[in-house]
Amino acid sequence: MILAAGQGTRVRPLTKDLPKPMVPILGKPVMEYLIEHLARHGVRQIMVNVAYNHRKIEDYFRDGHRWGVEIGYSYEGVYDHGDILPRPLGSAGGMRHIQDQSGFFDDTTLVLCGDALIDLDFGAALEQHQRQGALASVITLDVPREQVGNYGIVVAGPDGRVQSFQEKPQPHEAKSTQASTGIYIFEPAALDLIPSGQVFDIGSQLFPLLVERDLPFYAQERRFNWIDIGRVSDYWSVLQRVLRGELADMRMPGTEVRPGVWAGLNTRIDWSAVHIQGPVYLGSSVRLDPGSSVIGPAWIGHGSHVRAGARVERSVLFEYTRIGAGMLFQDMIVSPSYCVDRHGHATYVGDDRFPLRWGDARA
Q1: Cβ contact 212:204 at 8 Å
Q2: How many helices (H) and strands (E) does the chain have?
C-alpha cells in the first residue's frame, strides 16, 4: 500500500495544485519511482489511499498496467451539502478502511509513504520480518543527531524490539538516532488493533499501542538511500543530487547534446550565443535567447523560455516558465505562478515587492 492521502502542507506551494506524490523529479512523479521499484521486486498489487487532488494521481497511474502492476484506489472523503470533500482517515485509518472493504491486508503487506525516493531491498526486509516473527516492522535509518528534530525517532532494544518513540525530539533529548522512514511491514492481526471509521495514525497511535501491549514489533535498521521530500528545502536538495548523478537508477532523459547537457525534442537554442554549464537538462521546446545563461545543476522544464541576458543558476523551472530578460535566479524552484527559494520562502507573480520578473511562457 502507498500512503498518498495527505495535503503536503510542508512543501507548499509545490502542492498547491498537486498531491505530494505527484511532485516531479526529472519530469516524473515521485510516486512513479516507487512503483517502478516495487515492480522490480515482484510486487504486483498496490493499493493507494487518496484524498486531496486525488484525480491527479488516478488519471496519471490509472490501473498500473504500464508498470506491470495492478493499482487500486481508496478515496477518503465525505459528501457534505452537495460537495464531495476530502477527509483523510490518517495513515492507519486508511488501512483499516481498505481492510473493512476488501480484506486487502489478509496477507503480509508492505506499506510506504508516497513522497520519498528509496532503493530498499524489500526481499531482505520481508525475510527479516518473517524470521523475527514480527507482527509489525518499521524500517529505520540512522540520521545525524542534529537532524533528529525532523523525524519520528524509534527507540529499540539490542534485539531490535521497539521500546518507545519520540516525535521530532530536540537533539539533546533524543534517545536514539534511528529515524522512521515511513516504510512498514504488517501482518493481518495488526489491522485488528485499528478502530473502524476513525482517524487513526500509524506512528502516533498504532505503534504506541503495539508497544503498550508488548506485541512482537521490531525496528529494522538498514543501509539504503532514503530521500524524504518533507520540506521545500529537501526537494531542492534532492533535485541538486539527482542532477549531479548521485542517485542510481535515475537517468537523465533526452539526448546528451554536449558533455553534461541533455536536451529534449524541439529545443530552440543558438549554442554559440548562450552559456550553459552542466549538468543541465533542457526539456522539449525550451527556448534560450541569445545572451542567456544556465549554470547547473539545473532543470529547465518543457516549454520554458529564458529571455535575453537572464541567468539561471542551480535552479529548477517547472514547465512553461518564462524568465524575464536580464533577471538572475539563483537556487530557486520556479513555476509560471510562483517561485520558492531553497529555504522554502515563496513569492508569487505580481508581487511588486519582489525584484525578479517571471511568468507563463504560454502567454
Answers
A1: no
A2: 7, 32
